[in-house]
Amino acid sequence: xxxxxxxxxxxxxxxxxxxxxxxxxxxxxxxxxxxxxxxxxxxxxxxxxxxxxxxxxxxxxxxxxxxxxxxxxxxxxxxxxxxxxxxxxxxxxxxxxxxxxxxxxxxxxxxxxxxxxxxxxxxxxxxxxxxxxxxxxxxxxxxxxxxxxxxxxxxxxxxxxxxxxxxxxxxxxxxxxxxxxxxxxxxxxxxxxxxxxxxxxxxxxxxxxxxxxxxxxxxxxxxxxxxxxxxxxxxxxxxxxxxxxxxxxxxxxxxxxxxxxxxxxxxxxxxxxxxxxxxxxxxxxxxxxxxxxxxxxxxxxxxxx
Length: 305
Hints:
By secondary structure, the protein is an alpha/beta fold. The protein is built from twelve helices and twelve strands. Helices cover 40% and strands 17% of the residues. The mean pLDDT is 94.
């Protein structure tokens, strides 16, 4: 996500500070934007004390993103998904600075949807440690917004995919991974019949949502918004699109092998989800530019470069 956002800002005369615990993956060509790289652990307060000087907008994308790792080690997940937000907010309060904070949430914080499409009025009922901690971090931000200590909003993201660095988490970026496998001539593995619905939203559309949120923060302040394209696609349909589009581009025809889901598969993987983003669209004018077909074709193009 950070890579896509920096790519969009690259042509604008601005200063971007990238804070990471390791060397960020660079964009193809640096243009108008001045990019400064800082290194530090965001779960340590001193990192934020050094990083926030002169910052107007914070895009908070840092997180531990594995549901299974969170269940295995809840304390570590707390340290990585709650403490950074607390330290960020407390640094703002203590230093008496008020940057705009835009936080990347997840639609799975709602748990198993009780109706579709899911909008902002849907009750939150997290069923994983990961989602519980993401929701707690959200609520910290909302509280500090209510106290007028900062301005901020949360974008709860559906299934994000698209060009960019390979995810370090094998449980994320599944659609990108399937494209890479198909392009290499490897068969794809699908759990069960792949009947569950997902709302796939292209990464550059999501990056634009964050920019729109920053510009319209006074309308969005203190709230969360559901971000997706508003269309459900089954896992099987998405995988078949990958097979079809990679075959059309390369002539390599791969198969989709259906296997029994592993016993340890989280219940959250068995949800159906479609986003209702009308409230965010109405407030910001945001729109998506990529259908799933167009997005998959763009991923294929980026991998083949």
